[in-house]
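Quick illustration, no need to memorize.
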Amino acid sequence: MLNLENVFLHLLIIILPVFLYHGFVGKMNYFPNNRRNQFHRFLLLAISAILSMIFPIAGVNGVSYDFRSLVIIFAFFYCGRNYAFLLILLTSLLRIFLGSKGLLASFIMIPFLYALPLIFSYFWSGFSKKRKYMYALLAGTASVLTFYGAMLIFNAGDNESVFYTDAFFQAVLMGGLCYTVVLLTMVFYEEYMEENDLLRIQIINSEKMNVVSELAASVAHEIRNPLTVVRGFIQLMKDDESAMNKEYMQLVLSELARAESIIADYLDLAKQNSEKREIFQVSSLIKDVMNVMKSYSNMNGVDLSYYIHHDYKLIGDLGKLKQVFYNLIKNSVESINHTNGRVMINVTKHDGKALIAITDNGIGMDQQQLERIGEPFFTLKDTGTGLGVMVTKSIIESHHGGIEYESEPGKGTEIFMTLPLYKEQTD
């Protein structure tokens, strides 16, 4: 029946991938929930499920029992439904390969074991931590009851079966208790580590913003005034017919314009606290941005298009959100160095928020470049400063939204931006 050594070995096999992910894989990327890290998480969970089946927790009448369903439930919550279904397929194929009794019963139980986790997965990211613990307990309890109920049904009529003994009933209670405790432990640790990662990222961003804001406050105004005076006198000299070296003056004017642009970015960072809030349709925001940026994309030979699945209502500073799109679309257009360039804006809804994806087929970025996005003065453009990305990120976070990047060299970049919907929005 239940062997204590097998129980502890099994629990270690189940919990270890969660610790390994946050100890090594989860720190490899600035965005902990991107596709690459989710795939790494899936690989660790798959190894855990396979080891769980190879080293079962108990064996009764030739039937092996393990906690692989725990791994799959956790995958539904934190790895995505696609990877969870892939785990079900993988463990089912291994179950066929390993053979033994109860094969039919294990397949029949699958829809009942994972019905609740599947339903919860659609809303999981929007649940509070308290609700996540409660629903994890509910899913674990339902899984144990499903297993024991199935065993009773498939062994009905066999009065001498071990499944009807007090020892087996006690073992099931002990196993069920371990099952739910381990699931709650996994959820607790995952939430704890994700919260720590989020705090770490916020602290890093706060430090960066403090540095740049201090620079903006102390330098920008002091430099802007003399630049304005110099620019004015250069323009007067340029208009003078007797003035010499007009081409040099033109160069001076262009460089002064670039310096003023950099200072304007500094000032934008320093003024993030002053925002006006208004309610507007997402379509009006996107269309206004398209009217401005369409000519710029055409000038660079890039096709700029958009698709809005539903016209959601947002609340925020419309002017600053337009600036966000100007910065992001401009970067996307400038990342394309070939013909047939495309930039696509796609507006959908995800987890109760507006999800805006900006996709391009430009040069893309590697992993190290992705991790440095948002650092002061980090840019891939010859004449860029990197401040535009900081301004963009600051504006989105001040609107209680988020932004993530996914990219591969030579394949382009995807930018995923989330913004809260207006509270009275019911759709």
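The chain has three domains: 4-203, 210-270, 278-420.
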